[in-house]
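Form 7-S
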Amino acid sequence: MADTMRDILNPGANNHDPRFPQAPQDWGAADAEQLAGDEGLRLNDDHWETIRALQAFFAKEDQPNPRALHDALDEHFHERGGLKYLYEIFPGGPVAQGCRLAGLKPPAGAVNHSFGSVQ
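Output:
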């Protein structure tokens, strides 16, 4: 993985919402807020940072590897507790639930129904 989260979070081409330059065209922040509410979440700055990072990652790679996403997010949020912290704020998984909130299809293998999540 050549890109760091810092590299990925730098905006690329401007999109419909300047806060989310690499968001899917049919996605909006209100969509994420609605879905998060339906899933029992209230989005904070770290949720939005994760959403932007996932959108940027998908803009660079059409089908990113879930392990690479986990590793990049773990590194980016290391000072806040890494994946342990992300699983606290995304009980459905930072990649699987994060992708849903970002308007993205979670990559194959990101959703594992055979084990639970941190609650």
